[in-house]
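Hey, sorry to bother you again with one of my protein questions. There's a protein on my desk that I can't quite get my head around. No rush at all, and the record is pasted right below.
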Amino acid sequence: MSFKDILVFLEDTDASVWRLDVALSLAERFQGHLNGLAVAEVANIPDFLPGELVRRQQEAARRRNARIRERFERRLAGAAVGHGWREVDKTQARETVTDVVALHGRYCDLVVVGQVDRSTMDGTLPADFPGQLALMTGTPVLATPYAWRPTPVGRRVMVAWNASREAARAVNDALPLLRQAEQVKVLALTGEGGIGPHGDLPGSDLAVHLAHHGVAVEAEHSVVRDMDVGSALLSAAADFGADLLVMGAYGRARMRELVLGGVSREILRSMTLPVLMSH
């Protein structure tokens, strides 16, 4: 598998420009095709508002899409990758923006989106938008932080491992990046009650599997309390100098082992580096 078809969801923000740079760099690295997607959406329009006011807001949303497209095409001009543009006007449709992005995401190898800035949320996107997409698309989702400047992604990668189906899916989806990484660390987090299905050396079996794929990998095991999982992951990623975190999205929590599903929202709320999620 390789990332030959990449979709980037774009908004009219500075963070969206940085996100486009990341998506373009990946498309160039894997000699893939990059599609940009914008969705014209009007947030929270009460039914009692005058029709003319609603129409003005709808037209403003369409103009916003036009600005995003112009920025996309200007950035891709002269790029050595194939690219295309997708634009959806759902100002009168019942589907959510998440529904629209998820549908388009099913026709690609990777969806690149951004962390939702909770301080500027307007109701068009849920706070855990990347995680919901991972559930809905069947495609890996790469989320970039909103308070972040683009740096090369995938040189030093941390894998959050808990022996769950979701984590295994994320690892396999991330293999194109893991193979090219300079260093990969498998971090096996277990609860205080025991190591569950991890084996006697948590993370070592996955490290052996990745080594068979030519990945430069090491394994580490850490014991944490459930409430500390999100901060433990981000702290460990910072200590390792990771530029990418790979993890499963929304697994099922259990008492005796640590499963990352309950941590997905915390990571999406506090992320300090790009996160690749799969379900």
